[in-house]
Amino acid sequence: MLNLPLRLCLIVTLLGPFLAASAVANDRTPASSTAPLQTPDDLQVSLFAAEPMLLNPSNIDVDHLGRVWVCEIVNYRPFRNRENPTREEGDRILVLEDTDGDGKADRKSTFYQGTDIDSPHGVCVLGNRVIVSANGQVLSLYDDDGDLKADRKEVMFTGIGGEQHDHGIHSVCFGPDGRLYFNFGNSGSQIRRPDGSLVIDKAGNEVRANRKPYQEGMAFRCELDGSNFETIGWNFRNNWELAVDSFGNVWQSDNDDDGNRGVRINFVMEFGNYGYRDELTGAGWRQPRTGWHAEVPLRHWHQNDPGVIPNLLHTGAGSPCGMCIYEGYLLPERFRGEMIHADAGPNIVRAYPVEAAGAGFSAAIEDVVDGERDQWFRPTDVSVAPDGSLIISDWYDPGVGGHRMGDTERGRIFRISTPDNQEYTAPLESFVGAGPAAVVVVALASPNTATRYIAWESLRSMGIDAEDALKFGWQNSNDSRYRARVLWLLAMLDNGEDHLHSAFPDDDPDLRVTAIRAWRRVGLDPVVAVKELIDDPSPQVRRELLIALSESQDEQVPQLWAKLAEQHAAGDRWYLEALGIAARGRWDECLGAWLDRVGDDWDDKPGREIVWRSRAIKTSELLKELLLVSHADASLRKQYFRAFDFQPKQSGSASLNALVSVGGLDLGTPAGRDTVRLALLRLDPKAINKSSQMQSIAFSLYSKIENPRELIEFARHVDLASQVAIGRLVEIAISQPQSEQAVDAVSLLFDWNVSDTIAATLSGDRKRAVRMAEALTTAAEADATELLRKVILDPEADSSVRRECVRAFCKRKSSAAELLELARSGKLDTTLRSAAIAALWSTSFADVRQAAAKEFPPPETKGAKPLPSLIELAKRRGDPKHGRVIYGTVGTCIKCHKVNGEGKEVGPDLSEIGSKLSRQAMFESIVYPSAGISHNYEAWSVVTVDGQIQTGLLVSDTDEAVVIRSADGIARTIPQDEIDETFRQDTSLMPADLPKVLSEQELVDVVEFLTTLRKK
Fold this sequence. Notes:
By secondary structure, the chain is an alpha+beta fold.
């Protein structure tokens, strides 16, 4: 056994690096910035630049000379103020240079500064042109004389929206096809030309988020001058910076609604809907729909809806930012050709190695830099330098996302290389764009995009004179990515069609895919390419043929589509969605051609998937057939019915009517009930009301639908009230009075004008009445006001019910003000005073709450300090450990309440109170204990014939005796023949002056402790 000194030495040895890294991270100095950052053993991180050279970099690019161009943000929420910005001169585009090749920047230039680029989120360097994305615009800044100062500015696109918003316009990047790629998040709304006109894209659509057809975040490409504009993907949330590889594959990340662990990586299959919002209605992902995923990250992106492109990878929670494709050779092989991605939320830079999977891809995660030991490390972008090293920008801030910016005094740039690579060079700088084609073509092999751009421009300008050099590169290189870059340029020659024909039979499917894309790029007839490659063994190649067909109006398209559809493999969602993209706008012809080819053999697994995805007039009939056969299990049944939602309305009704008629004969089985319910939900309620058969079936279903949410949805849609339905809705409301279902059930009861049923419940059994009043509190229905008023003002009504009705009364401003006046004027029973004050103190209407505070001053804590409002108290955070001590010593809580077996059982057991009550409700229970008394915990008084009074909880009341447990926890039995009177008190046994023995902070600490008591 180790002795103590040896054990201490071992602990220090093991923890030493971590402790040192933690200490370094805490000092926040540039000199210590790399110590907390962890990389694999075959990578090395070094500091390239830091404050005061730069501040808050949001996006970077590296030019052909290795200079790092930086979007530097200071004037960003919450530090930006239009009248008094942090930096009046505006934000900047900086250029950082390493002039001596030691891997550290030693020169800084301000290329451009101005309030017109406040909060820039993108910079792209293309020779002497610098494209900046900022303030709802895309600007081109030109350095005409090479002095690293912008000489002129041109507006490329404007009117985008999302100014001062990280969900707005993002960085432009250069693609291997000679086009610009970029995107905006869901705070962007449109794209306009400099003259203010809306951009009309190549598909003939206005580029705006109005669901005609585009919505939310979008992805684009266009020519270098902004022409030939295409919308290549839409319905993202906050897609940040596209990355395009040499084959023309487009990749990006997309942020979820925070807290749902749904951050995703997308392969952007052209012209696809990516599912952030409902395609049909624009509803958010939380809106219930048939067949949604049980897993929230998948539900978040509507992954069970036909017409939504699948996600490549989920990375959990995060704040995803910039991305690049690493197509260099300096870093180890596992990173080559892969996405490199900066995720600022979890303080990490990752690679996502991909492999072909059917017509799409699968991906894994490989860490590049992990900054977990320095939570201020906030990587925002990553770019590849000419030498193949990675350059990473670090926002360096205590927080990220939600427009947070806690620091404007820091910012870093890091370099990732291998341990044996310390020098920083630009190896091709001397001949990037100069000299003969045979020299310039070498620069196409650079890992740096800016270098490849200059070479591309030079070779493109040479035209046919570059053909021999390009052909040599195509024929003699064994690097498929280099060959792809060459092929894009060969395609643009006058005889480009010949070069592409020669590429079609290449052994590498990635190059066959590139050839198809290049064929489209230069405007050749897609049908020709499809005919040549239609039997290609690669589903990825056939996927691209389908995308190509989507742009053709040729009469041969349906037959070609049908032949490609025959090759669909079950389970390949990428291929299935490519079929959907290709058939968009001509589903009747395409599905008809496929059915003609396959005949009666359509009903196999691949065929059923095609039917599910299709949107032809014929589809509804086929879906009906699938729903009536045995292989339509519960899961498939939901999928097929969800597909009905996307069908032309005129074709679906007959099939749905048939399903109701057939299913109506089989309501005794779960499948029959489910089929009828889902079919009726898709029929016009007016048609249901006109059919006595459908009404009868609907009434029968009311008692058979077990799921409360499904019952409410069904009842609201068919809009047929019956005693059974009304009774079921009442039971839903009182069984879960604080739930969303209770709100919906109460709302529907009032819609059906059956307030008398609610009134009867409020005057009936006490327990049910209290729970109905709780449901009315949750629902906050305006129609409930008169009902609540009657109960509150009825002295004969049960006091517990009246107290809960007081809470409900305060949920609307007009009735809250009325309650205040009743309390002020003395027209409110004294038994309701505590409940009224507590409710008024908790109301969300500030003016009513403030008036109540003046009329009824808040209780005082220890030291005669008045309490703030319950709403303010609920916002405070305390120390749960100290609260546990207070609970058991200073206060009297443990004398009456049990927690995990400790304490006395006078009041309710609090072992799981954190799962039952909100923070605000806990404060209310302590400050105003008589405002709401839990059922079965009311105080009772027993008066004996000799004048003695026993007060406490009523434990038992039988013909022989009454048992009362007093506040000291002792149960006393009183024979019935000794009792003169027994009655319930309207005040709580809990002491009303408890706040006076606690300070405000002690009270907050106690509640903090109580919130930790949850179901295990």
